[in-house]
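User: Can you predict the 3D structure for this chain?
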Amino acid sequence: MGLFGSKKKVEESVSGGVAVLADGTKIGIARRVDCLGVSCPRPQLMTKKAVGEVAVGDIIEVLADNPSSVEALPPLCDELDATHLETVKASNCWHIYIRKD
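Assistant: Here is the predicted structure, written as structure tokens:
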């Protein structure tokens, strides 16, 4: 065990899937960023990396269970040339949808 506990494997990018937004729009997911169990600022850094790696128009789905990360990601989109499409609350986490502009 290290100084800050054991390292947790974090899945930064899984591709594929389809999501349905509240208005019924179906969107294809280019990249899924799994930030479950991860605290700030790591979700923001992981999201920034993912946005930088996808093509313009691609949509990223960020899974987060840390409320402060959920609040921090939409404003971050302005800095990333991206658009926050929607945040959806699930039973154990939030799904945050971001499109690269």
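Residues 1-12 have pLDDT under 50 and may be disordered. The CA atoms of residues 11 and 36 lie 9 Å apart.
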